[in-house]
Amino acid sequence: MLPRLSEQLMQPEELMDNGSPHTEALWALVRPHTGERYEVQPTSRGNGSDVTAIVRCEHGPVFVKACRNQSRGRRASMVRERLVNPLVRAVSPKLWWYAEDEEWTALGFEVLEGRSSDFTPDSPDLPAVVDLLDRIGGLRLPAQAYDWSETRWNRFAGEGTPSCSKARRFSSPTSTRTTS
């Protein structure tokens, strides 16, 4: 059973509280990269991580994404994201730093301004979305990802739907997508 989101995510007031038992170790871990923290603005999306926030800090704004290091946690996903970032820079924000200890894994990305796309018929956003999907589809699979299978989205698939990990696999940097 999945924990409820309210049990997983930091509350905004906890993120700013240096003395919070939940965040004290996190802020100590990222401080060498951020310097003094002035403001923490939790994001409205990114519910798969324990913390997603824009941090205004001594070294400039940074998007911080962090998860607790615990069994059945999201650490593996964060490690994959760190490893592939240099190879997907054409379609993603730059990873500036990462930090990890026994309690937390944290990634620090450049901050990009943006908004959600409008997917309604005849939206002026649709050509840009299609272009981005085409660009993503044209990226070579990083060697680090050959054997990864993703299952975290399976819970959203209907009964009887092939699992995400079995429906699509990538086999090599030069091959196209194959069904296994």
Percentage of residues assigned to helices: 25-40%
Structural shape: globular
The tally of helices reads 6
Query: What percentage of amino acids are in beta strands?
Result: 15-25%
CATH architecture of the domain at 5-109: 2-Layer Sandwich
- Helix/strand class: alpha+beta
According to CATH, the fold-level topology of the domain at 5-109 is Phosphorylase Kinase, domain 1
Question: Got a strand count?
Answer: 5
CATH class placement of the domain at 5-109: Alpha Beta
Low-confidence stretches: 1-10, 164-180
The first-to-last residue Cα distance is: 28 Å
Q: What is the gyration radius calculated from CA atoms?
A: 18 Å
Mean pLDDT: 77
**SSE topology string:** HHHEEEHEEHH
Strand order of the largest sheet: 1-2-3-5-4
Protein name: Aminoglycoside phosphotransferase domain-containing protein
Organism: Streptomyces antimycoticus
Biased composition (Low complexity): 170-180
Region (Disordered): 159-180
Task: Reconstruct the topology from this structure.
Elements: H1 5-8, H2 12-16, H3 24-34, E1 37-42, E2 51-57, E3 62-68, H4 75-84, E4 95-100, E5 104-109, H5 126-137, H6 164-167
Antiparallel strand pairs: 1-2, 2-3, 3-5, 4-5
Biased composition (Low complexity): 170-180
Protein name: Aminoglycoside phosphotransferase domain-containing protein
Region (Disordered): 159-180
Q: How would you describe this structure to a colleague?
A:
The protein is globular, with a radius of gyration of 18 Å. By secondary structure, the chain is an alpha+beta fold. Strands 1-2-3-5-4 form a five-stranded antiparallel beta sheet, with helices on both faces. The chain contains six helices and five strands, in the order αααβββαββαα. The chain has a domain at 5-109: 2-Layer Sandwich (Phosphorylase Kinase, domain 1). Residues 159-180 are annotated as: Disordered. This is Aminoglycoside phosphotransferase domain-containing protein. Residues 170-180 have a biased composition (Low complexity).
